[in-house]
Design a protein that fits this description.
- The protein has 454 residues and is an alpha+beta fold.
- It folds into 2 domains: 2-248, no CATH class; 307-453, Histidine kinase-like ATPase, C-terminal domain (Heat Shock Protein 90), CATH 3.30.565.10.
- The protein is 65% helix and 10% strand.
- The chain contains 11 helices and 7 strands.
- The chain has helices spanning 2-27, 36-61, 65-86, 91-118, 131-159, 169-196, 207-285, 291-301, 313-328, 347-366, 418-429, and strands spanning 332-337, 375-383, 386-394, 401-402, 405-406, 433-439, 442-450.
- The protein has a 5-stranded mixed beta sheet with strand order 1-2-3-7-6. A two-stranded antiparallel sheet has the order 4-5.
- Helix 4 (91-118) runs antiparallel to helix 7 and helix 5 packs parallel to helix 7.
- The protein is elongated and about 120 Å long.
Length: 454
């Protein structure tokens, strides 16, 4: 039992502590799930209990490469499940970030072994009974410094755009490759060099064994650096692809806005043409003007009452233009918007956010044959220190949701469907929350911003 507790403290807990340090560095930008603190504490207690079981298994199978690999894979899987429980992100993002954290942890561990085997180990001769106390102080002090360096060089460039990630097969494959390289190299080296060591691990009687051990450590370091660089470059390449995709989307949105502006001008020209002829007809009649003619004239010029005042000039222009488009296409647009509460947003983000929200709604209701159901509701209100955006519209058909967002119904998946992702990117940029659902053939989109975070 004493040996089990020793293994639990030095091997299992030491591994988990350093691993969770890098977990914290890779996932700090993720959105927390509800009841975060109870899940963090309860899940942490479960991880510690399973680690104790793995310490028992370590005594039985820990001296073989396969057994040790399985033990550390179980610990990694349990800890990753703990992260998944605490954060509201998809499994691919959790797997990728946790794999990167595992590789970073192993990188620091191997560098520590290189330094320890090289010269620091000789300092331990004078530590006597206080060996483990001094070793732990030196080990964790080194790990904190190494974590800061590795975070700045490798991790931060990968996680800075976490909110806009759309993980694909490449990143999933890299995550699995990182996991395989990390677990196999670490387990195989530690097992076999542990058998060759004299007394404690990494103490070798023959200098050639020490050289071989250092060569293995250096190889592991190079492998970890390589997979971390590969992951970083792949994420960078993916971000560039998303930026290009966003630019294409902006171009398509501009084309769409041009079409709406063209149709709006055409509508105004038609109304002006009608007004001109009606005025000529009234002038030709002379005398009393028929009531029906007056009503027709008032209806024709009612288009100029479509101006929407929100307290935000940019929103006034956008919503007014959208309302004119809705009138031309038989769509009812209902707006109750307090634009002053959105003053914290950049103009381009504000225009893109509401442009995408309304364009998606317009596309949905235009496909509805029943004129009475061609309705779009938009509400923006300030409640205390929160800004609430609610948009609802009827919807015919079926929508598939993935990671909380509706997937495009268009056949060309690569060309379409960026609107909702663009909305999410903007919402996350301002630390907001986005939810979407369908209930009773009505699509509901809800966005929540905290003014305290702006």
């Amino acid at each position: 039992m004493e040996q089990v507790l020793f293994t639990y403290e030095k091997a299992m807990l030491g591994f988990l502590i350093t691993l969770y340090i890098f977990y914290a560095l890779t996932i700090w930008r993720m959105r927390r799930s509800s009841a975060f603190l109870p899940k963090l504490l309860g899940g942490g207690a479960a991880v510690l209990a399973i680690a104790l079981a793995m310490a028992v298994a370590y005594q039985v199978w820990g001296q073989t490469a396969v057994g040790r690999s399985v033990i550390y894979l179980v610990l990694f899987g349990v800890s990753m499940a703990h992260v998944q429980l605490c954060f509201a992100e998809g499994f691919p993002a959790i797997l990728f970030c946790c794999s990167v954290a595992y590789a970073a942890q192993n990188l620091c561990y191997k560098i520590h072994l290189m330094v320890w085997c090289g010269w620091t180990m000789h300092l331990s001769a004078s530590w006597g009974m206080q060996f483990y106390r001094y070793y732990d102080l030196l080990y964790y002090a080194y790990f904190l410094v190494a974590a800061v360096v590795v975070y700045g060089v490798f991790i931060y460039p990968m996680v800075r755009g976490m909110s806009s990630w759309q993980l694909d097969r490449r990143l999933m494959a890299i995550a699995l490759m990182i996991l395989a390289v990390t677990v196999i190299l670490c387990s195989v080296e530690d097992v076999y060099f542990g058998k060759l060591s004299l007394g404690m691990e990494n103490h070798f009687q023959r200098p050639e064994l020490l050289v071989l051990r250092q060569t293995g450590n250096l190889f592991s370091v190079m492998c970890c650096v390589s997979v971390l660089l590969l992951a970083s470059r792949t994420v960078e390449h993916r971000e560039l692809e998303q930026e290009v995709e966003y630019l294409h989307h902006a171009i398509r949105q501009s084309e769409r806005q041009y079409e709406i502006s063209r149709d709006t001008i055409e509508l105004i020209n038609i109304k002006c043409h009608d007004i001109r002829y009606k005025l000529q007809a009234l002038a030709a009649q002379g005398g009393a003007v028929p009531r029906q003619a007056v009503e027709d004239l008032q209806k024709s010029i009612s288009i100029y009452d479509a101006k929407i005042a929100t307290g935000n000039q940019l929103l006034d222009v956008l919503l007014t233009e959208k309302s004119l488009y809705c009138e031309q296409n038989g769509i009812e647009l209902s707006c109750m918007v307090d634009g002053a509460g959105l003053a914290f947003m950049e103009g381009s983000d504000l225009y893109c956010l509401f442009g995408n929200v309304l364009d998606n709604a317009l596309e949905a209701v235009k496909a509805i044959a029943d004129r009475e159901r061609r309705v779009i509701n938009l509400v923006v209100k300030v409640r205390g220190n929160m800004v609430v955006i609610q948009q609802d519209n009827y919807f015919d058909g079926r929508l598939t949701f993935r990671e909380g967002l509706p997937m495009t119904t268009k056949q060309d998946k690569g060309y379409h469907g960026f609107g909702m992702r663009s909305i999410r990117m903007i919402v996350h940029k301002y630390d907001g929350e986005l939810t979407a659902c369908i209930k009773d053939d009505i699509f509901h989109l809800n966005i929540l911003f905290s003014l305290n975070n702006q």
